[in-house]
TrEMBL record:
Transmembrane segments: none annotated. One of its GO terms (molecular function) is glucose-6-phosphate dehydrogenase activity. Substrate binds at residues 174, 178, 212, 231, 327. This is Glucose-6-phosphate 1-dehydrogenase. GO terms for cellular component: cytosol. Residues 185-476 form the Glucose-6-phosphate dehydrogenase C-terminal domain. Signal peptide: none annotated. Belongs to the glucose-6-phosphate dehydrogenase family.
Length: 479
């Protein structure tokens, strides 16, 4: 469905995110016919550049980062026509008059994408107001990291709230734009099959894994100041946890969904020090370690976290959530696995072994859902049991259009234009998430506290295995 005509100003328009994600996402939506021919995208950044220069920049980005750009070549030039550029200083007065001129008289929906560091959020919000560029219907989009602890997140919320209402602020967590993550809500709340079993009476435990095979690459400068806890756990994994654990919202609307997510975060119990493992990848014969990659011999920043979370509410008391994420692991594999309890009694006797149903929601790669069920092994050998997967890989079940899963940014940017905040984080949610992760991070910042090492290309540190083995359980294989 096409969205209404809009003016989208990208502050940080020449930055890495604009290049890798925002511009290619807009191009895909243009090719899909969702971006109106009247829509305008205005890049804004400090570099001196004219419209033609920005179009060339966008062309290169799209060709580099959009795998299908070649097949959509016919759309490329018309798309670029809708782009323009204003050289502007977010923290000074230069260029704002030009932006004013560019937007003057426009009746289109207006959105400002703050694709800049959080230290500039306050400057941008204030100048948008001073130069009369904001109006009650305009939106701002802010990227993570939204602060680095509770205090800084509160300060950011406060500074934005001076000029914008909560309904105008779109805090992006791109995991919420992933197709399978949204599917999690469909699976839970559009089927009668799962929800009656979705509680501690039937679920033994839940594992959420976001494993990456890549390292920090060129982002070492940012990453070394953040670490896996701030970069992944506090936002992406917490969001997955919320969608998995929340009560059914009364409606699929922004506040109903976000109220339920917030209740989950607030019900999280503090994490015991023995229930968290902080790891850093070390070099192998062939591959560089974290310290080599970021160019610091003594950094203690973590590239891996595993922890056991407990939700103190009626539904989940007694069912732990094991969460882990890390870089330079064996494979890029992300999933949520709901491990059900054993059948209460085995009529087949102890020889039949232990069998459990596991529902796996695969976020990437091979987006899909798999339900492990136990059946009789075919053959005359008696009642031998075997676990087999009922596998629904979306691209196989739904045909070729499902193979072409849109990037999360495509969905999220269009939601901004539509004015739908359901897949964006509310200020109180972000603060509650920091309130839960802050004590863990503070303990790590104590002098002498060091991460444990794990080999590049492994499944993570041995301590992470011990964390779950202690409870008589095991991690699912990263493959
Ligand atoms: C980003 C993190 O938010 O998410 C990166 O800053 C991480 O460190 C990335 O690599 C993972 O996203 P995806 O979509 O590739 O799983």
């Amino acid at each position: 469905i096409p969205v209404q005509p809009f003016d989208l100003v990208i502050f940080g328009g020449t930055g890495d995110l604009a290049r890798r994600k925002i511009l290619p996402a807009l191009f895909r939506r243009f090719c899909a016919g969702q971006m109106d021919a009247q829509a305008r995208v205005i890049g804004a950044a400090r570099a001196e550049m004219d419209d033609a220069g920005y179009r060339a920049f966008a062309r290169d980005a799209i060709i580099e980062f959009d795998v299908d750009a070649a097949s959509d070549a016919a759309h490329l030039e018309p798309f670029l026509e809708q782009l323009s550029y204003v050289a502007l200083d977010a923290a000074g007065e230069t260029g704002w008059d030009a932006l004013q001129d560019r937007l003057a008289g426009s009746e289109r929906i207006r959105a400002f994408y703050f694709s800049v560091g959080p230290s500039l959020f306050g400057d941008l919000a204030m100048r948008l107001h001073t130069y009369g560029l904001s109006n009650p219907d305009c939106r701002i989009v802010v990227e993570k990291p939204f602060g680095r602890d509770l205090d800084s997140a509160r300060a950011l919320n406060k500074v934005l709230a001076e000029h914008f209402t909560e309904a105008q602020i779109y805090r992006i967590d791109h995991y919420l734009g992933k197709e399978t993550v949204q599917n999690l809500m469909a699976i839970r709340f559009a089927n009668t099959l799962f929800e009656p079993l979705w509680n501690s009476q039937y679920v033994d435990h839940i594992q959420i894994t976001v494993a990456e095979s890549g390292g920090v690459g060129t982002r070492g400068g940012y990453y070394d100041k953040s670490g896996a806890m701030r970069d992944m756990m506090q936002n992406h994994i917490m969001q997955l946890l919320c969608l998995t654990a929340m009560e059914p919202p009364a409606k699929y609307d922004p506040d109903s969904v976000r109220d339920e997510k917030l209740k989950v975060i607030r019900a999280l119990e503090p994490v015991e020090p023995r229930d968290v493992v902080r790891g850093q990848y070390e070099a192998t014969d062939r591959l560089a370690g974290y310290r080599n990659e970021v160019g610091s011999r003594d950094t203690t920043t973590e590239s891996f976290v595993a922890l056991k979370a407990r939700i103190g509410n009626w539904r989940w008391a007694g069912t732990p959530f094991y969460l882990r994420t890390g870089k330079r692991l064996r494979a890029r594999a992300s999933e949520i696995a709901v491990v059900f309890k054993d059948a209460p009694h085995s009529i087949f006797g102890s020889d039949a072994g232990r069998h459990r149903n596991i529902l796996t929601i695969r976020l990437q790669p091979n987006e899909g859902i798999e339900m492990g069920v136990t059946i009789k092994e075919p053959g005359p050998g008696g009642m031998r049991l075997v676990d087999v997967p009922l596998d629904m890989t979306f691209s196989e079940a739904l045909g070729p259009q499902a193979a072409d899963i849109p990037d999360a940014y495509e969905r999220l940017i269009m939601d901004v234009i539509r004015g739908d905040q359901t897949l964006f984080m509310r200020g109180d949610e972000v603060e509650a998430a920091w309130a839960w992760t802050d004590p863990i991070i503070e303990a790590w910042e104590a002098p002498g506290s060091e991460p444990v090492l794990y080999a590049t290309g492994s499944s993570g540190p041995d301590d992470a295995l011990a964390l779950i083995h202690r409870d008589g359980r095991r991690w699912r294989e990263i493959k």
